[in-house]
Predict the 3D structure of the following.
Amino acid sequence: MRDKDDELSRKGRRLALVSVACAFTFMAIEFLGAAYGWPNNVMGLLELGIAAVFLWVMVQSYMLWRQRQRDENG
């Protein structure tokens, strides 16, 4: 049981780090795009990639939450 809790905690920390890194990457892309005048289609493609990572984090968070609920209920 202890190993399972450690694994779930590790997954949660990884998701938090990915989310924060993705947010900082998004801010950096916005800054660089404005500073260098990148075209809208390039910015849109980069933002779509960031949105995909955020979606992955949300799905993984939901799956982690469901796994913890299953473990608590039996």
